[in-house]
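Quick check before the chapter quiz. The format below is the same one you will see on the exam, so make sure you can read both the input and the output lines.
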Amino acid sequence: MSYQSSPAEGHTEQTETPPETPLDTARHQLDRAASYTDVDPNIVERLTYPTAIHEVTIPLERDDGTVEMFNGYRAQHDSVRGPFKGGLRYHPGVDREEVMGLAMWMTWKCAVVDLPFGGAKGGINVDPKALSTGETERLTRRFTNELRNVIGPETDIPAPDMGTDAQTMSWIMDTYSVQEAETTSAVVTGKPTAVGGSNGRQEAPGRSVAIISRELLDYYDYPLSETTVAVQGFGSVGANAARLLDKWGATVVAVSDINGAAYDPNGLDTHTIPSHRQEPEAVTSHADEVITNEKLLELDVDLLIPAALGNVITDENAFDIGADLIVEGANGPITFIADSILADRDIRVVPDILANAGGVTVSYFEWVQDINHRTWSLEKINEELEAVMTDAWDAVRAEVEHRDVRWRDAAYIVALSRVAAANESRGLWP
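Here is the expected output.
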């Protein structure tokens, strides 16, 4: 399948393509994966829709005494394999369709690494930079109260995402626990270690991206010592992935934040560049040469890791991508049409549902620790994460080789097959 980058299908004149939503992309990917399998079409139809979407309106008393209203969401896609699981994001782009699509992705992400969870996603339509610490806490606690009846350690377990962090999860855990009249640490993951959080949780998505990148490079005979890498987004995912690949011998030539990219064709010392968490939006201030985020995507490198926002590679720039291989660090950085263009150009892409699944994997470890009132060492966490990620890689690689399909298709085939098998076994009630 191929697509033209400008005219819409069936038209001779150039038309503007409407932006692709995460839900659009998720449903396209589900349909494509289903076409390679013998999964019951009735099960596919069920999986096209979420189980539930909770929408709430949250009043916030600002520091100046005024009250402002915000919209909050929690989409629960599927729980046939276990409790709903997924992040909460605070961002101006949060809306109903976004969380629906991201919740579906979480179902596949949990399934491809074989975790006993289903998918969920939620958040608040708000600019977190416009909130004081006190306002963020009050908004979070009220949001928790509004969701109290739909979250829980055996029901739906939120985690950090864009605009939220360990402190946010701590406020959620405390609010829920006070209302339950008992400490319930397993209601969220991604907490501070002082209140039941896990070692290695914050670094886990970036570590899994690095692990999958290493396996991909080895599969196509790219020695790490001879590999060039560009990373868009130097937050928790991008920074940790870049630093690990740098440590393992790869040459990281560019990293970026919202202001632009630090670039050195001879290689950057990624450990001296502060991540967004360490020093927000400071990448370019530590650069000898600065290029744009758009130019970073076009660099002639072996491996590109888009680890910033969704939909950064579209039909408008897919023909300009210069990398041989792409590993998705962010959720949904490549649109459905762009993905087809990249495939036609023989650029191999490993999808987000596999690559950045380290976050939900260590969240699972945290949940297990909380339930059992045990603490695992960082060494054990990293060993277990390595095992889960390499097992998932092996399962996806086997589908690539058996069916002669793209990496994305293979990952979705693995995930869909596991979710469909659980659906078929449990049946439809009544």
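If your answer matched, good. The longest helix spans residues 378-403.
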